[in-house]
Known about the structure:
heterodimer, A: mainly beta, six-stranded mixed sheet, five-stranded antiparallel sheet, B: mainly beta, seven-stranded mixed sheet, four-stranded antiparallel sheet, about 55% strand, globular
Amino acid sequence: QQQVKQSPQSLIVQKGGISIINCAYENTAFDYFPWYQQFPGKGPALLIAIRPDVSEKKEGRFTISFNKSAKQFSLHIMDSQPGDSATYFCAARGYSGAGSYQLTFGKGTKLSVIP
Amino acid sequence: DADVTQTPRNRITKTGKRIMLECSQTKGHDRMYWYRQDPGLGLRLIYYSFDVKDINKGEISDGYSVSRQAQAKFSLSLESAIPNQTALYFCATSHTGQGFNEQFFGPGTRLTVL
């Protein structure tokens, strides 16, 4: 079974600090690695995504670092703010046949940024 | 803006009852998905559909069925609800195309089975 392992399960960071969430995968056929952000009472929303031929992608304060040889990728949130408090899911896209793809999600990390 | 709408938002029901969760979208996307979210387990795919005539099982389809009534509507049914189907259910949509196609999620339906 395809899996994406995410850690930590929860994270508390002080305002202005760096939040780091890690994910690992086994299936080398995964071809996209997105991160989703979910606020309480809302559905997940795409935050940032990376392809495996790129080692790093940055969008504002959010950066994905990708290590293809180690089969690991991580989300870094610089200058973390209380508004970043949310649950973050990493995911990986895999081909499931007949032209279709599926996302496999990690179990999520609940981030709390304290003032 | 409610591009992906789910009804009801909350539902409490009893074991053995039949339940239908509905999803509508105004994004014009052809692909629709149903996920289940449980604390500590992340999001797991129940069923997905790439057009009106296409229905595919996901990771955890047992105990569930779906119907794609139109391109914009995708409903999830629990024929005989059981307590371990208590969860948060999300509908999502995406379009077909090259590259990574973002999935857009609805606001979710919280289902409690007593």
